[in-house]
Amino acid sequence: MPALYIITDLTDPLLNFIKDDPVRPEIANEQRVNESSKIFVLLGEHQEPLAITCVKFMTSVPSTVQDLWLETDTPTHAVFYTIWSYQAGAGRKLILEAREYIKANLPMVTTYITLSPKTDLARRFHLKNGASIHRENASTINYLYS
Protein backbone atom coordinates (compact mmCIF):
# COMPACT_ATOMS: atom_id res chain seq x y z
CA MET A 1 0.00 0.00 0.00
CA PRO A 2 1.50 3.37 -0.99
CA ALA A 3 2.30 5.78 1.85
CA LEU A 4 2.68 9.55 1.99
CA TYR A 5 6.11 10.78 3.06
CA ILE A 6 7.30 14.37 3.51
CA ILE A 7 10.89 15.45 2.97
CA THR A 8 11.67 17.97 5.70
CA ASP A 9 15.45 17.74 5.89
CA LEU A 10 18.13 18.62 3.33
CA THR A 11 20.04 15.44 4.20
CA ASP A 12 17.16 13.14 3.23
CA PRO A 13 18.42 10.59 0.66
CA LEU A 14 15.16 10.91 -1.29
CA LEU A 15 16.36 14.37 -2.40
CA ASN A 16 18.52 12.49 -4.92
CA PHE A 17 15.34 12.01 -6.97
CA ILE A 18 15.01 15.78 -7.54
CA LYS A 19 17.34 15.28 -10.51
CA ASP A 20 14.34 13.66 -12.26
CA ASP A 21 12.13 16.78 -11.99
CA PRO A 22 10.93 17.38 -15.57
CA VAL A 23 9.21 20.70 -14.84
CA ARG A 24 11.46 22.83 -12.63
CA PRO A 25 14.89 21.14 -12.38
CA GLU A 26 16.62 24.50 -11.84
CA ILE A 27 15.11 25.02 -8.37
CA ALA A 28 17.62 24.40 -5.59
CA ASN A 29 16.90 21.93 -2.81
CA GLU A 30 17.14 24.75 -0.24
CA GLN A 31 14.18 26.43 -1.94
CA ARG A 32 12.21 23.17 -2.01
CA VAL A 33 12.72 22.22 1.64
CA ASN A 34 12.34 24.94 4.28
CA GLU A 35 9.71 26.34 6.64
CA SER A 36 7.40 27.38 3.80
CA SER A 37 8.21 24.65 1.25
CA LYS A 38 7.82 20.88 1.42
CA ILE A 39 8.32 17.90 -0.86
CA PHE A 40 5.64 15.22 -0.72
CA VAL A 41 6.53 11.72 -1.88
CA LEU A 42 4.26 8.75 -2.48
CA LEU A 43 6.28 5.69 -1.45
CA GLY A 44 5.71 2.15 -2.65
CA GLU A 45 5.87 -1.01 -0.54
CA HIS A 46 9.69 -1.14 -0.79
CA GLN A 47 10.06 2.56 0.13
CA GLU A 48 10.70 3.51 -3.50
CA PRO A 49 9.20 6.79 -4.76
CA LEU A 50 6.14 6.36 -6.95
CA ALA A 51 5.53 10.11 -7.39
CA ILE A 52 6.96 13.39 -6.09
CA THR A 53 5.48 16.88 -5.82
CA CYS A 54 6.90 20.13 -4.45
CA VAL A 55 4.64 22.58 -2.60
CA LYS A 56 5.19 26.19 -1.53
CA PHE A 57 2.90 27.68 1.14
CA MET A 58 1.96 31.28 0.29
CA THR A 59 -0.60 34.03 0.86
CA SER A 60 -1.25 34.64 -2.85
CA VAL A 61 -1.36 32.93 -6.23
CA PRO A 62 1.99 33.17 -8.05
CA SER A 63 2.14 33.80 -11.77
CA THR A 64 5.87 33.14 -12.22
CA VAL A 65 8.51 30.91 -10.66
CA GLN A 66 10.12 34.03 -9.19
CA ASP A 67 6.88 34.75 -7.30
CA LEU A 68 7.35 31.48 -5.41
CA TRP A 69 10.17 33.02 -3.40
CA LEU A 70 8.19 35.96 -2.05
CA GLU A 71 8.12 35.85 1.75
CA THR A 72 4.87 34.94 3.43
CA ASP A 73 3.68 35.19 7.03
CA THR A 74 0.58 33.08 7.47
CA PRO A 75 0.04 30.99 4.34
CA THR A 76 -3.44 30.42 2.97
CA HIS A 77 -2.43 28.80 -0.34
CA ALA A 78 -0.69 25.51 -1.09
CA VAL A 79 1.01 25.98 -4.46
CA PHE A 80 1.93 22.74 -6.23
CA TYR A 81 4.68 23.84 -8.63
CA THR A 82 6.06 20.55 -9.94
CA ILE A 83 5.03 16.91 -10.01
CA TRP A 84 6.33 13.75 -11.63
CA SER A 85 5.66 10.08 -11.26
CA TYR A 86 7.38 6.78 -11.78
CA GLN A 87 4.14 4.77 -11.93
CA ALA A 88 0.89 5.41 -13.82
CA GLY A 89 -1.77 6.96 -11.59
CA ALA A 90 0.66 7.75 -8.77
CA GLY A 91 0.73 11.50 -9.50
CA ARG A 92 -3.04 11.80 -9.06
CA LYS A 93 -2.95 9.77 -5.87
CA LEU A 94 -0.11 11.90 -4.51
CA ILE A 95 -1.91 15.20 -5.15
CA LEU A 96 -5.05 13.94 -3.42
CA GLU A 97 -3.13 12.57 -0.43
CA ALA A 98 -0.98 15.69 -0.08
CA ARG A 99 -4.11 17.86 -0.16
CA GLU A 100 -5.72 15.75 2.58
CA TYR A 101 -2.57 15.94 4.69
CA ILE A 102 -2.42 19.72 4.30
CA LYS A 103 -6.13 20.09 5.16
CA ALA A 104 -5.65 18.06 8.34
CA ASN A 105 -2.37 19.66 9.46
CA LEU A 106 -2.48 23.22 8.15
CA PRO A 107 -6.09 24.39 8.61
CA MET A 108 -5.22 27.98 7.63
CA VAL A 109 -4.50 26.75 4.09
CA THR A 110 -7.76 26.85 2.16
CA THR A 111 -6.63 27.18 -1.46
CA TYR A 112 -4.94 24.39 -3.45
CA ILE A 113 -3.50 25.69 -6.68
CA THR A 114 -0.72 24.97 -9.15
CA LEU A 115 1.92 26.96 -10.94
CA SER A 116 2.02 24.85 -14.08
CA PRO A 117 3.77 25.21 -17.41
CA LYS A 118 1.62 25.94 -20.45
CA THR A 119 1.71 22.44 -21.90
CA ASP A 120 -0.93 20.05 -23.15
CA LEU A 121 0.41 17.42 -20.74
CA ALA A 122 -0.12 19.68 -17.71
CA ARG A 123 -3.57 20.75 -18.94
CA ARG A 124 -4.73 17.16 -19.45
CA PHE A 125 -3.29 16.02 -16.10
CA HIS A 126 -4.89 18.73 -14.00
CA LEU A 127 -8.27 18.87 -15.77
CA LYS A 128 -8.53 15.06 -15.70
CA ASN A 129 -7.84 15.11 -11.95
CA GLY A 130 -10.61 17.56 -11.10
CA ALA A 131 -8.89 20.94 -11.27
CA SER A 132 -10.23 23.98 -13.09
CA ILE A 133 -8.30 26.78 -14.76
CA HIS A 134 -8.02 29.65 -12.29
CA ARG A 135 -5.82 32.00 -14.31
CA GLU A 136 -3.68 31.95 -17.42
CA ASN A 137 -0.44 33.91 -17.06
CA ALA A 138 2.20 34.89 -19.63
CA SER A 139 4.20 31.66 -19.21
CA THR A 140 2.22 29.59 -16.70
CA ILE A 141 -1.29 28.48 -15.80
CA ASN A 142 -2.79 28.25 -12.31
CA TYR A 143 -5.09 25.24 -11.92
CA LEU A 144 -7.38 25.32 -8.89
CA TYR A 145 -8.23 22.16 -6.94
CA SER A 146 -11.37 22.41 -4.80
The major beta sheet can be summarized as:
8 strands, mixed
The count of helical stretches stands at: 3
Average pLDDT reading: 95
Number of discrete domains? 1
- CATH domain topology: Aminopeptidase
Spatial gap, N to C terminus: 26 Å
The sequence of SSEs as H and E is EHEEEHEEHEE
Tell me the fraction of residues in β-strands, as a range: 25-35%
CATH homologous superfamily name? Malonyl-CoA decarboxylase, catalytic domain
The CATH class assignment is Alpha Beta
Rg, nearest Å: 14 Å
CATH architecture label:
3-Layer(aba) Sandwich
Low-confidence stretches: none
| Total number of beta strands | 8
* Range of helix content: 10-25%
**Shape from CA axes?**
globular
Structural class: alpha+beta
Blueprint of the fold:
Elements: E1 3-7, H1 29-32, E2 37-43, E3 49-58, E4 77-85, H2 90-105, E5 111-114, E6 116-117, H3 120-128, E7 132-136, E8 140-145
Parallel strand pairs: 4-5
Antiparallel strand pairs: 1-2, 2-3, 3-4, 5-8, 6-8, 7-8
